[in-house]
Predict the 3D structure of the following.
Amino acid sequence: MLDIHGTLLAAEPIRGSHSARKGMAQWVLAVAIGILLCTMSSAGGSKPVQYIDYKTYSFYLLDWNKEQYQCLLKLYGKESAWNPEARNGSHYGIPQGRSTYLSTLNGYDQVQWGLDYIGHRYGEPCIAWQHFKDKGWH
């Protein structure tokens, strides 16, 4: 039963045929498995599941902070277009760090490295983005 706002007034059991209830249970199970697959690490290590893109991974690393994420999107968009194989002189990867070590890392580890660098040098991505806008580098 719904009120005038379309919200449930009281919980009601699922009505209908056995197959309808079974279908709902299968749907809930599929959603739960999907959530688990998106949040668990790959077997045998701590690297993220490979089908999560670098941008989503960075949003997760920023604790879903939309403001800082928007700044990081702009910063890495300008630096490397989020390409882990980007190279500009002696600068490598997504964060365009000066370390040749970055050229040996996958994109996820590059994002982590870049956020660690930003954290130590600027404190947060929006400050690094402002520095980039002012100076043309970070």
